[in-house]
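Appendix B. One record, verbatim.
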Amino acid sequence: MTNLYDLMDAAYCSVELHEQSRSLNHVPLIDHNPRGGEKEAFEPADAIRYNERTAAERSNARLKDEFGASNVMVKGNTKVMSHLMFGVLALAAAQLMRLRQ
């Protein structure tokens, strides 16, 4: 796998992390933390890539918080995968119902 981007939220906004990312020939997509100053915006293409990350995080958070992925009470790979996939199925159904409204 080739890593091209380093995606981080505003808590990781620092000059050192930006420099380290660029030294590895990566594109740093780190949300800017203004720390009392002006908030810097992303370039348009970078904003789209960053928003894809946040959409995935929202889905993962809903899967954990609302559909039982944070506390799976079964043992065995097959059973755990089944429980997680039922959660993904329920999440997909919930999203489809939201779109329908």
